[in-house]
Here is the input.
Amino acid sequence: MDKVLAKARSGMIAALDVGTTKICCFIARNTRPGGLRVIGVGHQAAAGTRGGEIIDMEAVESAILSAVHSAETMAGERVREVFVNVSGGRPQSSTVGARITVAGNEVSSADLRRVLDECRHRANGDGRAMIHSIPIGYAVDANAGIRDPRGMFGQSLGVDMHFVTASAGAMRNLKTCLSSCHLSIAGQVVTPYASALACLVEDEMRLGVTLVDMGGGATTLAGFADGDLVYTAMVPVGGMHVTNDIAIGLNTQISHVERIKALYGSAVHVAGDEEQVIDVPMLGEEDDGGHHQVPRAELVNVIRPRLEETFELVRARMEASGMPTAASQRVVLTGGASQLQGARELAATVLERPVRLGRPLKINGLAEATGGPAFSTCAGLLRYAALNRPAEPVSAAAAPGSSKSFISRMGVWLRENF
Here is the structure.
């Protein structure tokens, strides 16, 4: 983690989490030695998004404005740029290698730029927008796993880079929405990577872990090994699917389901489920109209299959990922849907791995209501902004495949990290 996020950024920073069920804005100050302190929070029920994708620009803009305005009012500050998550555009992950000749000479910074440029060109070509391009290991001749090859001698220099890309159209839609709200993009971070920065400790990243973020519209994964992000993926099932299942299964309105989930929902059966009765308003009736009663066991029988399906899909993605074995040995569960009673236990059973529940760490000033797993992504965006990895694109205007923009970014990265 300290390799990929090396430089601290001071002053005020703002993070914007554009999700399927909520849009959240955190404003924080990064002061040393106190670190990050949140001074403004705003969140709004999401509108105009589905499964992480923007489907109604005006509705998204309105929700963003409301969330940002609430945070600005609390902080007493004006936000002009934000670090934003990327959950739409079907993010894809790949690791690409490249090798160049150095003819027995000493490896220089110019050689690093050349091999990074070569790797970038090999990864490009499908017209998708680049979100992350992270070097995860260099090799000089047959010696692999080198962190900094400068000053070493050899015949060849190689690098493996992890790339995360998303649909260029989805990225333009997000940028357009923010521009309409008079906000510019300071940085973009794929959702599970942001959540991982908030929830994981450095030893987990180094020893290997997979972060599973259970959002409203989708479940996303980020795998880490040797301190590096080595894999990202998405499963198109989230908390809203559980909500819809309950509404159908119990014949009630979606507006009543969240309360029912919070009070009685569980992914595992416990003693007394058959005897405990839930009063459920009937679909189509007025608030004071017809109700019917169902045993709590029936609610669990609706919830459990959907979560089992989700975790089985997660397991399949992990097994098919090709990521290092260490990255799949343990799991950290976060996101709003992970708070459902019994979700962690069910995940451990299906995934057959140790599972813990993750929440934001090392972020001061968060109230209990905004310091839980549902706000991991927004907190992680603050961590990313404060530690500021210059290698990433800071503007959606950097076109995929632009050598000039890539070399410029790599130049900044090299100056800041070496």
